[in-house]
Model the fold of this input.
Amino acid sequence: MKKVIFLIALVAFSACKNDNKKTGTSSDGEENVVNVYTHRHYAADQVLFKQFEETTRIKVNVINASADELIQKMSIEGAQSPADVLITVDAGRLTRAKDQNLLQPIESDILNRIIAPHLKDPENYWFGLTKRARIIAYAKNRVDSSDLSTYEDLASDKWKGRILIRSSENIYNQSLLASLIVNNGEDEARKWTESIVENMARSPKGNDRDQVKAVVGGEGDIAIVNTYYIGNMLNSENPEEVKAAEAVGIFFPNQNGRGAHINVSGAGVARYAPNKENAIKFIEFLISKQAQEVFANSNYEYPVNPIVKPAPLLQQWGEFKEDSLTLSKLGEFNKKAVLIFDEAGWK
Ligand code: FE
Done:
């Protein structure tokens, strides 16, 4: 119920925004705005959007909501949607937006040149903005890092009752399993899933941060989490989070093979974008050196622009090999992953 009210409020809000679009007019009387639907709500983003407005004279209208709410809102609005750009997380979810006909392909030499091919949609419906790895956070006082190796190895008996990981409803886990299906085949992926369920320290609950806290609380010995959560916890104002993150080591799996599983937050131009050219300029700006530096230092994610270095904390963790699997595959195998999770009884 709460969600429905929220969506109605959002639609009403964007209707107001539609009227306001006319305020951002250029000298020739054309409206000069870009309407951005984003799940990101960092103060740093606001600074960035101001910079974009100052250099381009294009006004940025931001609508914040959770990723799934934004996608739902766009599909309710249909051809009337004021959305120009959708920014959201996970290639699985970006592919879902593409499959639901909410995005359109674009041509941009800048985006094609800077963003590695595996970090974008092969048909240019969406482009990665920042990267994150799904890694193993282990209890430094109970796990010898030399016992860790691959995602596949987590299925072995030695991890019985020791693994902490969130629910399979979460897109991050669906994408991780999709990567295992693509890399190892469906049968192997199914066996892996069943073994992980066997090896769980507890029935899945909470988010990635909660898994790290549970390691420190002694409920399990290793947690599978996204890198930026560790970065954010280490820099948290909550001393409990800092303490939890300090007690775990970071391990990048599969370094002698295909590399650690990664994912992106990304952006695409909306199917009915009223300001398509501005939308393209906006996404090009988001992968510029200037913008990527802001992203890199605001949420502890890895930049997609290779000339920009990650935050100092991430540099301390060292370089790692990433799985170069084309991320759009994660969307392609999402349904299969969800099915395998259900069959294996992964809550
Ligand atoms: Fe997240």
